[in-house]
């Protein structure tokens, strides 16, 4: 991560993005949350595109985390995800918590972080269109 930060500071953004991307992936695999957060900030500072950030986000998730996150971003409840994946609800909770931590987003930002479209939700604002 430090190499990527140094490269960014001396005006070598392409090289910085590569080093920072690798650092973020390793930090996520190791569960180094503080380093992961710093890496995401550095990626943005180095000019990472939203596509690049989504690409990093999806690469740091394991297969089960990605699958659970995909279901959650479609609006499925924990119980529904557990039924789809044939695992317990507590396991789903752990998978989603890990996915949220790794991609740096909560439930409301998960779809965007993964590059998925959020589900269509009903308008509850109380206003009507005429």
UniProtKB/TrEMBL annotation:
InterPro entries: Sig_transdc_resp-reg_C-effctor, Tscrpt_reg_LuxR_C, WH-like_DNA-bd_sf. SUPFAM superfamilies: C-terminal effector domain of the bipartite response regulators (SSF46894). Residues 58-115 form the HTH luxR-type domain. It comes from the Bacteria. Residues 111-130 are annotated as: Disordered. This is HTH luxR-type domain-containing protein. The lineage of its organism: Bacteria, Bacillati, Actinomycetota, Actinomycetes, Kitasatosporales.
